[in-house]
Amino acid sequence: MLEDSRLPSCSHLPIAAGIGLRAPHHAQFAAERPHVAWIEVHTENFLGGGAALDLLESLRGDYAISLHGVGLSLGSADGLDSAHLDRIAALVRRIAPAAVSDHVSWSVTSGAYFNDLLPIPYDEEALSVMAANVQQFQEALGRAVMVENPSTYLRYRHSDRAEPQFLAELCARTGCGLLLDVNNVFVSAMNHEFDAIGYLEAVAELPVGELHLSGHHLRSIGNRSIRIDDHGSPVSEDVWSLYDRALGLLGPLPTLIEWDSRIPDLDILLAESAKAGAKLALAPPRRATAKAFA
Amino acid sequence: MPLAEMERLFQDGLLGSSREILSHVNGNAREDAGAMFGVYRNAYWARLVESLAVDLPGLKALAGDAAFDHLARAYVARHPSTTRSIRWAGRLLPQFLAREAPYRDDPWLTDMARFDWALAHAFDAADAPVIGVAQLAAIPPELWGGVTLVLHPTLDCFAVSTPVDVVRPLLLADPRAAFDRDRRRDGGLMVWRIGDDLKFRAIDPLEQDALAAARAGASFGEICETIAARVEAEAAAMRAAGFLRGWLEWGIVQDIGHDAPGSA
Asked: What is the dihedral angle through the alpha carbons of B194, B200, B204, B209, rounded to the nearest 10 degrees?
């Protein structure tokens, strides 16, 4: 696989825009093979074989593929499910994806599965748990992975460091990369009232191998509102603006449009991707002061 | 507080009515912790109900939106998700509907859920090659009694008491479509996939029993005995052979096992 010195070792994706490929678009995508640089799928949807896996294998030759996990529960104090990890490793061997990722979150405890990306505290114990789980993940795959920053709606009182610091320490301890979700930064920043641009500046030197863009919505509670990360609408103008700032700070990076609820026609998804691609084409190269990944 | 204990408290707050987690988290300047924790709690329930609606569209159309939401939440309360993929969250729903009042009083609900689930399973199950009638014809007739079948991994077969296969497409096209709710039909449904095409077929009780026996590993001779208990002896072999030919022609047989010619 070709190395791009502008990217950390966790990412072999093309520096271009891709789309999240979801089941409602499988048949159309397979038939039309639209012009898009790469695709990302949810790992857990392809572990059972069947028609979905056949489709993914048929696309391998035409598109770089990113396997994006939503179920490993890297933040679980219980540790990883080794059988699930084995299934992911088998899929990675079969597909040879350009990138593998999961989230800074947890979703399983004591045998209950929440099918969600729940927040973890930002303290030393959670960092140790995350680091051990990420290392186990990487050793099982024999490659570096990326972890995605979460969107959150509450914070633990005993967290003793900011999210960017937690991510920096996790990357340093494990050698993993960061999948930076720009929408998540915006949603969390608005909900917790921190400076989104300051967040981007704080992670600018980390090994970021991919960016995510998606939609969110405003939910009213009484006469107030909070931002809900639902991947169910076009990328907001606020998030496009933050993406511009991210490209200015980080340089051009593989960028994905995610759309997971109220999924629109494929053409609309591709148009959003093309919009990101146009911004990527105009993005300045990574700043000379920033870390290179030669 | 240890991470494991924090996650347990979070779980208690999501699944039940415990509010202990709220003393360990902050909301923001505008909303208290309870309101913000509610985002996670609401999302947990809504996500599972939505997933069930996607996997069981026939059931949703049959029950109607409000009743489906109610029964889905009752099911999730009884059976919290125990699978990593939300895709499997509804696997116990047919049994739940068959067992629990008031749903157990309406066989359409259980049959539709079972049918929806079989269709979803057939789509997700691994592919496998199939054999045809020619492979059976190559086996000497004197060995047929010991023939066993490896059935296709996408195949599901189950008993129904309603013609749910006839009604489901009507309801998917128009959830308000009228149909005879008192109509009943004994027998079973078989569901499988060939390539990208989902297939289903209604079968009579005799064929359903024969297919169930084949799935359990019965030999062709044993299947004949099963049938002979229900029809005249001389007709049993013909019926069994007819079933077997049909299964081969429809593409639900992956392989045939049999003794080698001349073996004891």
From this structure: 50
